[in-house]
Amino acid sequence: MPKMKTKTGAKKRFKISPSGRIKRSFAYKRHILTKKDTKTKRQLRGMTAVHASDKAVVRAMMPYA
């Protein structure tokens, strides 16, 4: 059986922590930033965990992570 391929879009969007948690960055931080206030942009920095209901889907896209 051939090796499973990793979805390259998922590889770029998600990081797996050493403990196995899946981290993602926030949406709405790419463009049209002039109308967003400083507080909003500051809160969009960093990473957060993927919701429990989406974990299985992300794991399937990244079989070797």
TrEMBL record:
Source organism phylogeny: Bacteria, Pseudomonadati, Pseudomonadota, Betaproteobacteria, Candidatus Accumulibacter
GO MF entry, a single one: structural constituent of ribosome
Record Pfam families: Ribosomal_L35p
Name of the protein this chain belongs to: Large ribosomal subunit protein bL35
GO cellular component, one term: cytosolic large ribosomal subunit
Keywords: Ribonucleoprotein, Ribosomal protein
Family, as annotated: Belongs to the bacterial ribosomal protein bL35 family.
Family matches, as HAMAP family: Ribosomal_bL35
Keyword Ribosomal protein: yes
Entry superkingdom: Bacteria
GO BP: any one term: translation
Keyword Oxidoreductase on entry: no
